[in-house]
C-alpha cells in the first residue's frame, strides 16, 4: 500500500475495536516483502469518532460505516527516519497493536536513506493483486523486462489459474491488466460468481523467460 496516495493513513484510522484507547501517540510500522518491520511514521491521537456513512475500507473495499475512526495527525519529529528504521517486532506476529511501555522493540538497523527492498527474485515474488500499486518502483522494472508462467490464487473461490505473460511488458503488464479489470480478459474469471477475483487474488511467478514474445494471451489450466 502506497503512503503517498493516502490509503495507508485512512486504513490505520479505521478500527473495528477501540485499539488505541488511552494512547496519545501511535508509532506505525509495516511489514516489508522481506518480512522486516519498517518504521513509517508517528501520529498524535487527539480523539476518536465513528466512520461516516459511505466510507469503504481502502484495502478490502467493504463498507466500514460506524466503526472506530481515529483522528491521527502526522507528527514531523521523526519524519526523517521514515523508511529507515528497522525493528525487531518479536514473536507475536498476529498481535499487530502493542503497547510500547510494556514491550520494548530493539532497533536492528538505521539505514542511511529510505530505499526499496531488494527484489527477491522472480520465483520468490508473491503479491496480492489488489495491492499491486504498492509494488516498489524498482521491482516494476524487473517485472516488465521478463515474462513467463504465473499462478493466480483466488482464496475466495478456492481456484488456481495458470497463465503465460508473453507480451512486451512482461509480468508487470499482465499483472496490471488483472489489477485494472479484475479478470485480465480471462473468460473463466468473467463468468465467476460476482466476477470478484481481485480482493483476495494473489500473484505468484512460476518460471521466467528473459526474451518476451508477442502477446498471445493467457493459457489457462
Shape: globular
Major beta-sheet overview: 6 strands, antiparallel
Structure summary, number of beta strands: 10
Strand content: 25-35%
Encode the helix/strand succession as letters: HEEEEEEEHEEHHE
Count of helical stretches: 4
Low-pLDDT regions:
194-200, 211-221
**Integer-rounded radius of gyration:** 20 Å
How many distinct folded domains? 2
Q: What is the CA-CA span between the terminal residues?
A: 30 Å
Helix content: 10-25%
Mean pLDDT figure: 79
Oligomeric status:
single chain
- Summing up helix and strand content along with how strands pair, one would put the structural category as alpha+beta
Throw out a few tags for this protein.
single chain; 221 residues; alpha+beta; 6-stranded antiparallel sheet; 4 helices; 10 strands; globular
